[in-house]
Design a protein that fits this description.
- This protein is about 80% helix and about 0% strand.
- The longest helix has 28 residues.
- It contains 5 helices and no strands.
- By secondary structure, the protein is an all-alpha fold.
């Protein structure tokens, strides 16, 4: 992956992280206010209890999105400025992002599809780092 594509890839992941974190933060504010409403996804008290049980996972995803989004933006800027720390920081951050995404999948398996994007992007960064070391 060339330097330019790595910057674009990192910026795109940052945007996706911010979007995921923002939507999770919004959901975290809505869940506590849910009330039983017939003919909706929250038609029973049990449905609301299930939603409230997901609240810790929603908080984790919100923090994940904002924290790793900011770090991704910083790494993208560092890559543009050709700072020597940028590649290393991006690699280390991708490890922690993959771990956080795996934890989020474990806490809320129905969110696996969005979290899998972060695991796959991390794997792509690891592959790129390995390729850079061997060339």
């Amino acid at each position: 992956m060339s330097q330019r594509w790595l910057v674009v890839f990192t910026a795109a992941i940052a945007i996706f992280l911010f979007a995921e974190g923002g939507s999770a933060a919004y959901v975290a504010t809505v869940i506590p206010t849910l009330e039983v409403t017939p003919d909706t996804a929250f038609a029973t008290a049990e449905d609301i209890a299930k939603a409230r049980d997901l609240l810790p996972a929603v908080y984790l995803v919100a923090v994940e999105g904002f924290l790793f989004g900011v770090i991704s933006v910083a790494c993208a800027i560092g890559l543009v400025m050709r700072k020597p720390w940028a590649h290393r920081a991006l690699l280390v951050t991708s490890i922690f992002l993959a771990i956080t995404a795996a934890i989020a999948i474990g806490m809320a398996p129905q969110r696996w599809d969005k979290q899998a994007v972060f695991v796959l992007s991390s794997a792509l960064l690891w592959w790129d780092a390995r390729k850079r070391r061997t060339t």
